[in-house]
Amino acid sequence: MLTTLNFFVREATVQEDTLIAQHFYQMWLNHQLTPESLNPDWLNITLEFIADARQHLSYQAFVAEVEGKVVDLGSRRIFTSMKNPQLYPPPL
User: Fold this and answer.
1) If we measure between CA atoms, which residue out of 6, 29, 28, 86 comes closest to residue 52?
2) Residues paired with 29 in a beta bridge
3) Cα–Cα distance for residue pair 64/74, rounded to 1 Å
4) Does the pLDDT value for residue 14 go beyond 90?
5) What percent of the chain has pLDDT over 90?
6) Looking at residue 19, what DSSP letter applies?
7) I want to staple 21 with a disulfide (CB 3.0 to 4.6 A). Which of 12, 31, 46, 82 is the partner?
């Protein structure tokens, strides 16, 4: 039997910035970065990046929900660079 689920995409709120930062962290791990390769303060650094990007790069995040539960996140901004030397050191 097929079940119909309600799918909804909305703009993320500032209160969800920690959730967005955690999503970035998981994406880095999915791209083969190790937790040890990231700055231990990655959460605060990423929250600062999000706040700065929102102010200067037209950053906007989006939340996808099914039945009221967050199932995915997305974001967009004016591109500068994904590499942040504070998060992980440059290659030698």
Assistant:
1) 86
2) none
3) 8
4) yes
5) 57
6) H
7) 46
Helix ranges restricted to H, 1-92: 17-30, 42-56
First to last CA, the chain: 56
Number of Cβ atoms within 10 Å of the Cβ of 2: 4
In the block, which residue shows the tokens 């955690």? 22
Show me where the domains of the chain are located.
Answer: 11-76
Residue 9 is encoded by which pair of tokens?
A: 């995409």
Please tell me what DSSP assigns to residue 12: P
Q: How far apart are CA 68 and CA 66, in angstroms?
A: 5
Name the nearest CA neighbour of 73 among 6, 4, 2, 19: 19
Grade residue 5 by pLDDT with cuts at 50, 70 and 90: confident
pLDDT (tens digit per residue) in 20-61: 999 999 999 999 999 999 999 999 999 999 999 888 888 899
